[in-house]
C-alpha cells in the first residue's frame, strides 16, 4: 500500500468517511459514491457479499462492522473508490472538554460477575464439554460538555504505530439521532487475506505497560511465564486452527506465543499463517467463520455467549465484533473490535473485556479491563489510568 504518494487530508474532511483504517500497513478507506449493503446476520452474509461482489468496480471496496452477536445485523457499505490517504497527524489544539464518567457496571460489580463465572466453571468442570473460558466486559459511559471531536480523537489513536486505528459509521438508533460512530485502536488482526495467503494474529493474555522501563520489562516477562495466561491464549489458537484447517492447503502456527505490545498493553500473540484452498473466498467471509473467537467470547463459543448475555448489564452491540474491508479481488483485513468506543454527539461508551479461566482473580481482571480503557481515555484527553481500581494500580 503506497501511503507516501498521498498528502494528508485534513482530519475534518475524513470525519464523514463511512469507514477508514490506519495501521502499520498503511491507510485505507471508502471514497466516492457509496451504498449500504442490506443489513443482516452472518448466516446471510455469503449471499449478500456474493451479490455485492457482482457490482463492485475494480477500484471499489466493501467495509464496515460485524456486531458481536453472530445473529445481529451487520453494518457494511460498498464504496466505488478506495482511498489511501493517511490521517493528518497535526492535531487541533488540545481539547478541553469537561467530562462525567460513569462505569457501567462498577468495577466491584464487574469483579462479582467474574467470581460468578469462576464458580460456574468450577461447578461445571466435570460435565461433558465444560465452559473453559469466558471473556467478560465492562463499559464506561462518558458525557462531555460539547460534541466529541471524532476526527481528532481518531488521529490521536493513530499515533500508536502498533495498532490499527479505525472509524466506522454506525446505523442511527432513531430517525433524527446524531450520527453514531465506532472508533478504536485495535491491536488484534482477526484475518488478513492477500491472494491465497492468510494471516490471523490472535491476542490473549495481557499486562499493563509501566512507565518505568525496568518494571515494564518485568511485566512482559511475568506475562510470558504466566501459566494462567498461556492457558487462556492456547484456547484461542486451538479454536482458530480448528476453524481454518478445512479451508486451508497449509496452516502453521509457532508452538508458543510471542510477546507483543501497544503503547498501553503487553499481550501474548500468535501469528497463524495459511494458504487457502479457494483463494477467491472474500476475506470478510473467512473472518466471519472465525468471529467471535475465544479472545473476545469464550469456549465453547455458544455457551460463553449465552453467559455473557446473562452477566453483562450493557449489550455489546458492535464491541467485540469485527471491523474491516474487502476489495474487489476479495483481499482485505478484518480486525477484532476492541479498545474502542461508540461516539454519538457529546456521549461516548467505552468497552473493555478480559478473558476468564479457572485461576483468574476477579480484582485483577477488573484492573486489566481498567488498563485496557487507557488508549481511548488518553485519546479523549482523560487520564489513561482513571478506570483502574486504586488498590490494584
Ligand atoms: C476483550 C478485549 O481484549 C481481548 C482479551 C485479551 C485478554 O483477555 O488478555 C487480550 C486481547 C484481546 O483479545 C478487550 O480489549 O476488550
From TrEMBL:
What family is it from? Belongs to the isochorismate synthase family.
Alphabetical UniProt keywords = Isomerase
Q: Which reaction does it catalyse?
A: chorismate = isochorismate
Q: To which species is this protein native?
A: Pseudooceanicola spongiae
Q: Does the keyword Cell division apply?
A: no
One biological process GO term for this chain? salicylic acid biosynthetic process
Start and end residues of each Chorismate-utilising enzyme C-terminal domain: 107-372
From the Swiss-Prot or TrEMBL record, give the protein name: isochorismate synthase
Question: Carries keyword Transit peptide?
Answer: no
Q: Which GO terms describe its molecular function?
A: isochorismate synthase activity
The Enzyme Commission number assigned here is: 5.4.4.2
Highest classification ranks of the organism: Bacteria, Pseudomonadati, Pseudomonadota, Alphaproteobacteria, Rhodobacterales
Amino acid at each position: 500500500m503506497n501511503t507516501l504518494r498521498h498528502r494528508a487530508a485534513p482530519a475534518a474532511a475524513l470525519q464523514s468517511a463511512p469507514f477508514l483504517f490506519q495501521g502499520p500497513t498503511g491507510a485505507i478507506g471508502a471514497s466516492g459514491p457509496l451504498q449500504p449493503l442490506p443489513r443482516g446476520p452472518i448466516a446471510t452474509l455469503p449471499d449478500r457479499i456474493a451479490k455485492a461482489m457482482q457490482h463492485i468496480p475494480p477500484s471499489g471496496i466493501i467495509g464496515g462492522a460485524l456486531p458481536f452477536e453472530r445473529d445481529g445485523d451487520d453494518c457494511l457499505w460498498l464504496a466505488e473508490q478506495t482511498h489511501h490517504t493517511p490521517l493528518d497527524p497535526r492535531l487541533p489544539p488540545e481539547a478541553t472538554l469537561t467530562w462525567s464518567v460513569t462505569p457501567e457496571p462498577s468495577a466491584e460489580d464487574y469483579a462479582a460477575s467474574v467470581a460468578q463465572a469462576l464458580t460456574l466453571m468450577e461447578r461445571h468442570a466435570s460435565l461433558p464439554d465444560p465452559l473453559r473460558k469466558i471473556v467478560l466486559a465492562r463499559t464506561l459511559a462518558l458525557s462531555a460538555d460539547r460534541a466529541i471531536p471524532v476526527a481528532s480523537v481518531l488521529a490521536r489513536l493513530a499515533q500508536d504505530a502498533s495498532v490499527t486505528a479505525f472509524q466506522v459509521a454506525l446505523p442511527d438508533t432513531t430517525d433524527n439521532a446524531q450520527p453514531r460512530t465506532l472508533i478504536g485502536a485495535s491491536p488484534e488482526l482477526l484475518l488478513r487475506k492477500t491472494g491465497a495467503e492468510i494471516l490471523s494474529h490472535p491476542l490473549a493474555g495481557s499486562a499493563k505497560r509501566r512507565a518505568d522501563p525496568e518494571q515494564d520489562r518485568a511485566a512482559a516477562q511475568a506475562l510470558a511465564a504466566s501459566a494462567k495466561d498461556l492457558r487462556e491464549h492456547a484456547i484461542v489458537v486451538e479454536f482458530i486452527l480448528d476453524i481454518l484447517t478445512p479451508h486451508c492447503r497449509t496452516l502453521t502456527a509457532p508452538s508458543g506465543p510471542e510477546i507483543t505490545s501497544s503503547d498501553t498493553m503487553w499481550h501474548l500473540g500468535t501469528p497463524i499463517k495459511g494458504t487457502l484452498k479457494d483463494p477467491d473466498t472474500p476475506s470478510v467471509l473467512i473472518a466471519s467463520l472465525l468471529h467471535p473467537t475465544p479472545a473476545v467470547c469464550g469456549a465453547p463459543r455458544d455457551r460463553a455467549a449465552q453467559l455473557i448475555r446473562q452477566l453483562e448489564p450493557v449489550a455489546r452491540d458492535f464491541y467485540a465484533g469485527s471491523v474491516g474491508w474487502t476489495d474487489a479481488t476479495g483481499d482485505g483485513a478484518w480486525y477484532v473490535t476492541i479498545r474502542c468506543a461508540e461516539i454519538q454527539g457529546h456521549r461516548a461508551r467505552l468497552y473493555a473485556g478480559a478473558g476468564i479461566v479457572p485461576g483468574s482473580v476477579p480484582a485483577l481482571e477488573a484492573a486489566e479491563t481498567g488498563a485496557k480503557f487507557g488508549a481511548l481515555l488518553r485519546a479523549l484527553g482523560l487520564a489513561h489510568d482513571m478506570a483502574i481500581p486504586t488498590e490494584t494500580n
